């Protein structure tokens, strides 16, 4: 590299100097030829010397070759940086990209809503909605109402089911897979799955009973994780305001892998029935055996708790009944064991908890305050 630089420096400094000398000699010859014969020889000599001195050309460096060279190097560095950045980016499925658009909702946020691919919104006033797709996905039934949807052959049509706090919905997808969507959740899915894969995106909590199709693997994207299955039953809790994502496998087998974020360099984890995986925001994963009913009974309107932290139970109740609950530090650390029937009122459930623990509760400014006695 040094030899190349020296060569270019020589070329730039030497050539302009020779050219300038040649130009000066020619100009002097012209002046002498036109000469002023009236001047004495001494004055002529002084004049020629003055002209010659004035005609001396200061070598001028041609900077543009160096500028082009620097620009080429800079372009190479930028191109390499762009390639490196793009190579580090995860391949985001079209479904995930669509869900990231965060389609705005209008009207009463306390009601369950179905948003079709053309942004048509269907309000569902039943707080225990039942939705079923028929045929090829162009027709769906919401409770007793039949709705038609226009599909496109060249690209997927994504629908969104939004279930606010205080509501639950049961959805049967086009392939026959059943999904129980818990309060405060959103599911984005295609009206019709593709020929070689089935993908949905979850925010919140849902229980999946997946229809087995070996030729079309089923995947759930939740937080930064991809849960890949063939045919199985499992529960995912991935609320944005929770510190972790939890997957509990009831039957079958699932594979867990980060599809974006800090955990993409980690190997996939195979989860066995009766086990739970807890994934932190840093993609750290803990796997252990659990009581499945404690994490899946909500879909049947129950909480089946076994030494469950009271703070966790109260958070579930807050979402289920859409009622803010505040706790003090001591009551939040207590645990509760037993079955709670969520088909009654929230006060009925809190009465049972208070009677079984050292806690008490009161309602103040549309909030429930649960504290120790």
UniProtKB/TrEMBL annotation:
Residues annotated as domain Protein FecR C-terminal: 307-369
Gene3D superfamilies this protein is in? 2.60.120.1440, 3.55.50.30
What are the GO MF terms of this UniProt record? Answer: sigma factor antagonist activity
Q: InterPro entries under this entry?
A: FecR, FecR_C, Ferrdict_sens_TM
Residues in domain FecR protein? 162-255
Q: What is this protein called?
A: DUF4974 domain-containing protein
């Amino acid at each position: 590299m040094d030899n190349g630089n020296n060569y270019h420096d020589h070329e730039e400094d030497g050539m302009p100097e020779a050219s300038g000398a040649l130009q000066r000699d020619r100009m002097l010859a012209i002046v002498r030829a036109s000469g002023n014969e009236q001047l004495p020889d001494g004055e002529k000599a002084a004049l020629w010397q003055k002209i010659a001195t004035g005609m001396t050309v200061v070598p001028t460096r041609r900077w543009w070759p160096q500028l082009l060279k620097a620009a080429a190097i800079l372009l190479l560095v930028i191109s390499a940086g762009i390639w490196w950045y793009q190579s580090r980016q995860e391949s985001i499925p079209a479904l995930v990209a669509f869900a990231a658009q965060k389609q705005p909702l209008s009207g009463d946020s306390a009601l369950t809503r179905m948003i079709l691919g053309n942004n048509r919104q269907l309000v569902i006033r039943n707080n225990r909605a039942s939705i079923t797709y028929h045929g090829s996905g162009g027709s769906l039934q919401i409770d007793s109402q039949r709705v038609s949807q226009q599909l496109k052959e060249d690209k997927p049509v994504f629908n969104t089911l939004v279930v606010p706090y205080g509501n639950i919905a049961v959805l049967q997808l086009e392939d026959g897979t059943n999904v129980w969507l818990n309060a405060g959740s959103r599911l984005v899915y295609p009206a019709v799955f593709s020929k070689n894969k089935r993908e949905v995106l979850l925010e919140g909590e849902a229980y999946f009973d997946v229809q087995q199709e070996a030729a079309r693997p089923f995947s759930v994207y939740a937080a930064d994780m991809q849960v890949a299955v063939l045919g199985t039953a499992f529960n995912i809790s991935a609320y944005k305001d929770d510190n972790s994502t939890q997957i509990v496998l009831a039957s079958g087998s699932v594979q867990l892998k980060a599809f974006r974020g800090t955990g993409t360099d980690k190997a996939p984890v195979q989860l066995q029935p009766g086990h739970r995986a807890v994934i932190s925001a840093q993609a750290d994963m803990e796997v252990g055996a659990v009581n499945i009913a404690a994490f899946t009974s909500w879909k049947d309107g129950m909480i089946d708790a076994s030494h469950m932290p009271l703070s966790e139970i109260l958070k579930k109740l807050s979402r289920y009944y859409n009622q803010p609950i505040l706790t003090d530090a001591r009551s939040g650390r207590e645990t509760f064991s037993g079955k709670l029937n969520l088909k009654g009122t929230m006060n009925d459930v809190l009465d049972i908890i208070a009677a079984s623990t050292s806690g008490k509760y009161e309602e103040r400014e549309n909030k429930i305050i649960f504290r120790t006695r």
